[in-house]
Task: inverse folding
């Protein structure tokens, strides 16, 4: 589907770091990068948390919504606006440049602490493997990978819960995003799923050892969903080594095509739903757009008797954020205001759906820089929205 390949692109910084990690700068170039990175980590550990500078008294930006009447066709799927319960997943995806070195660093701990102060009670992060054109997947075989293990240790110390959500990195392959991964030959399909099973079980073992509460067995692999038996084999293999809750993170337009929801604990959705086609949609129009989607989602949830989590939800700094949330392009009239408005309405409306048990926002970096581009949320205006919606 045109425009779905949002995650198939990198920012300039991400592409640069990926190229460095692939060896394009040579051995000495990478040596210098490591030295500079260590310096950055030490400096980040010593500097005060930016979160402490955020004002504690912020005006509420939410307004209570009226409860649907008993005769409403969606009333059994919806609840009135209310204070979020402690069990509702107020999650943030912590992404990372390059190979994810910052996930293993003290900067990750400081970032998670900062997020907790904003009202976050869950985090997600996404260790990478790398796919080749023939379906082979390159990955680390150790079950003591610091980039995976350390954040789990940090979360325990901070009292945060974790969804581990491994991703296949497709950059450098013929696939323009992970949703386009498919093969013409059966032997390539078999190679892909065997490599994927071996890799995902290693990730699941680390999730189990580190106490991750949720594990996502896959992300947006929409061209693979017809291989139901292969996916069920993967789920069964993960269940043998991991005892927590399991989900699959389906793209917003393909979650009805997943046949193996019955084998999972949650219906996971990458919630980049188009909620308004208008150039500058009002809050009322955005609420109306969410109401339609949430009604459909809760009916689907009831069909499988499974709760839903939004494994990603985010908006780019773009005037088309409401119409094409997946679109990686940025800018346009009122881009900043539209991004804030979309996020504010989402955080107010999604908890009203009784079938949805939480959301993981996309995204945050282990950094104290102010970043608002490429879906990133760590800038003052967005902090105020997050705090107002999550710290009630």
Result:
């Amino acid at each position: 589907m045109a425009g779905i390949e949002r995650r198939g692109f990198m920012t300039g910084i991400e592409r640069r770091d990926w190229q460095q990690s692939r060896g394009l700068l040579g051995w000495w170039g990478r040596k210098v990068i490591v030295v500079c990175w260590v310096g950055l980590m030490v400096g980040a550990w010593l500097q005060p948390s930016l979160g402490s500078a955020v004002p504690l008294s912020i005006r509420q930006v939410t307004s209570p919504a009226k409860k649907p009447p008993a005769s409403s066709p969606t009333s059994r799927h919806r609840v009135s606006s209310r204070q979020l319960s402690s069990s509702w997943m107020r999650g943030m995806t912590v992404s990372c440049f390059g190979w994810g070195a910052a996930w293993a660093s003290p900067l990750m701990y400081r970032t998670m602490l900062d997020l907790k102060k904003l009202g976050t009670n869950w985090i997600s992060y996404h260790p990478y493997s790398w796919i080749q054109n023939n379906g082979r997947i390159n990955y680390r075989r150790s079950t003591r990978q610091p980039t995976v293990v350390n954040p789990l240790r940090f979360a325990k110390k901070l009292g945060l819960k974790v969804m581990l959500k491994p991703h296949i990195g497709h950059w450098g392959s013929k696939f323009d995003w992970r949703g386009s991964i498919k093969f013409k030959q059966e032997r390539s399909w078999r190679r892909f799923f065997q490599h994927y099973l071996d890799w995902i079980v290693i990730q699941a073992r680390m999730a189990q050892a580190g106490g991750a509460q949720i594990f996502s067995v896959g992300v947006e692999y929409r061209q693979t969903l017809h291989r139901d038996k292969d996916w069920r084999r993967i789920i069964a293999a993960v269940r043998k080594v991991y005892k927590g809750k399991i989900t699959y993170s389906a793209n917003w337009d393909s979650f009805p095509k997943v046949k193996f929801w019955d084998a999972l604990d949650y219906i996971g959705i990458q919630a980049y739903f188009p909620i308004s086609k208008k150039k500058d949609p009002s809050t009322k129009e955005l609420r109306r757009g969410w109401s339609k989607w949430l009604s459909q989602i809760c009916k689907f949830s009831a069909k499988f008797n499974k709760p839903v989590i939004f494994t990603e939800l985010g908006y780019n700094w773009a005037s088309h954020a409401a119409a094409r949330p997946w679109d990686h392009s940025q800018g346009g009239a009122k881009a900043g205001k539209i991004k804030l408005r979309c996020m504010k309405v989402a955080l107010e409306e999604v908890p009203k759906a009784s079938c949805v048990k939480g959301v993981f926002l996309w995204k945050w970096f282990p950094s104290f820089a102010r970043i608002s581009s490429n879906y990133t949320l760590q800038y003052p205006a967005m902090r105020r929205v997050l705090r107002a919606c999550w710290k009630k």
User: Anything to note?
Assistant: The chain is about 35% helix and 15% strand. The chain has one domain: 88-390. The first strand starts at residue 89 and ends at 94. The two ends are 39 Å apart (CA to CA).
